[in-house]
Amino acid sequence: MDLSVNQFQGRILDAVGNLYELQILNFSHNNLKGNIPSTFGNLKSLESLDLSSNKLEGEIPSQLFDIDWRLLFMGWGYMRFCDGSCDRPRSQLVSHS
């Protein structure tokens, strides 16, 4: 599902994590804010995830690392993440293509 460059604003809804058979999810180049929903851990069929060029911040949900990734692409560019308790935010470029 390609939802890139749509001028979306606000948070990503938790309900997106209920699209269990989703293989491609692209929310890049919007104006999304807040955290990545932990429900993204339900997306077991996901092969490509692009959340780059948004204003997302916080921790990357640990549920995403529980997926048996056959991931072809994961775009995180231009996002702010923090470590552990999020007391000390830091910029972190996880992967950028």
UniProtKB/TrEMBL annotation:
<keyword id="KW-0433">Leucine-rich repeat</keyword>
<keyword id="KW-1133">Transmembrane helix</keyword>
<keyword id="KW-0675">Receptor</keyword>
<keyword id="KW-0472">Membrane</keyword>
<protein>
    <submittedName>
        <fullName>Uncharacterized protein</fullName>
    </submittedName>
</protein>
<dbReference type="InterPro" id="IPR032675">
    <property type="entry name" value="LRR_dom_sf"/>
</dbReference>
<dbReference type="InterPro" id="IPR001611">
    <property type="entry name" value="Leu-rich_rpt"/>
</dbReference>
<keyword id="KW-0812">Transmembrane</keyword>
<keyword id="KW-0677">Repeat</keyword>
<keyword id="KW-1003">Cell membrane</keyword>
<comment type="similarity">
    <text>Belongs to the RLP family.</text>
</comment>
<keyword id="KW-0325">Glycoprotein</keyword>
<dbReference type="Pfam" id="PF13855">
    <property type="entry name" value="LRR_8"/>
</dbReference>
